[in-house]
Here is the input.
Amino acid sequence: MRPLRLLALVALFLALSPSPAAAADIRSGDVTIGTTETIDDDLYVFGSNVAINGTIHGDLIATGNNISVDGSVTGDVVAAGQSVMIRGQVGGSVRAVGNMVVLDGKVTNDLLVAGNELTILSNGRVGRDAIVGAASTTISGQIGRDLQVGGTNAKIDGGIGGSVLATVERLQLTDRATVGGSLKYTSKNEAQIANMSSVKGTIERQTPDPGRAPLVTGQAALVVDWLKGLIGLLILGILVVFFFPGFSRRAGEALVHSPWLTLAIGALVLIGLPILAIVFFAVGVVIGGWWIGFVVLSLFVVVLALSIPVAAVGVGGAVLRIARRPVPVWLALFIGLIVLLLVALIPILGGLVIFCALLFGMGATTIAVVGNRRAEVAPA
Here is the structure.
C-alpha cells in the first residue's frame, strides 16, 4: 500500500534527521538524579518514580507515577503523573498535570496546573501568574501577580500580588489572605471572606449562567435528539456516497460477502490504531517525528466517524434486498440509519447493536480503502 510506504519513508527520514529531542538526555525507568549530579542539557524522563535532587541546566520533561523536584532546574518543568511535588527551585515556568500537585519551592515564572488537587504550601513561591484548573485548590504561599482558578473549592491562605479571577463553587479567604488587586469570582455561593483578610481592589461576584431553558422536554426532547442524530449521520453518509461512490459500493460488498472477516478487522482497527498512535508518539518523542502519532490518531477518528453510516448502508441493503431489485445506495443508507437508531432506543440491547455496527463499519471502511489500493495496482 503506497500510503503506508510513504508513511514509513517519512518516519525513517525523521528518525535519521537531527532533532532537539535526539540531543537531549533521555532516561527511563525509576530515575534519581543525585544531589551532587549536574546535567547540562534538557532531561526527558519516562518512568515510574522520578526524583530530581541535583541540578539541571535546561528543561525537565517528565512523565511517571511519582515525580519530585527537590533540586534545581534552570529552565521549565513539564510534568505529568499521579503526584507531582516541587520543593526545589525552577528558573522558568512549571506546567504540571496530576492527581496531586504540591508546590513548596520557588517557581521564577508562571505556574500552570491541571488536576484533582493543588496545594501551594507556605514556602511555595510563584514569581508571576498562576493558572489552575483543579477540583480543590489551597494556596498558603505567595503568587507574585495574578491568580486564575477554576474548579470546586478554592482556599486562599497566602498572598496574591495581583488580582484573582475564580470560577468555583466555594471560595474562601482566610485571615492571612491578601490580594493586591481586585477579586472577581463566579459562584452560586457567597464567598467566605474573613474580616482580617485584605483585598485592595474591588470585590465582584457573578452568579453562573443557568443557560437557556430547553424548548422541549420529556418525550418530545427525546424525539428531537433522535431526529438530530438521524439528520447528522444522514448528511455525513450522503456526502460520502456522493463524493466516493466506489468506496461506498466496496464497503457494502464487504459487509454482504465477508461479514465475519469485516467484524474481525473492525475489532482489530478499534484496538490497534490507538495503540499504534501511542507507539508512534512515544518513539517520535525520542527519535523525532512524534506528530505521526497524531496523524494515525486522526485516521482513527475518521474511520470511527464513517463506521455508522457505512454499517447503515449494509443494514439498509439487507432490508431492501427482499425486493430482489437494484437498490440505490442513498436509499439503503436512509433505511439503515432509521433501523439502527430505532434499535438504539432499546435499553442494553441498543447499545450492543450500535457497538457491533461500529465494528462492522470500521472493518468495512478498512476493507474498502485496501480494496481501492489493490484496484489501482491491478491495471499496472
Remarks:
- Confidence is low (pLDDT under 50) at residues 1-23, 373-380.
- The longest helix spans residues 291-320.
- The chain has eight helices and 25 strands.
- The longest strand covers residues 60-69.
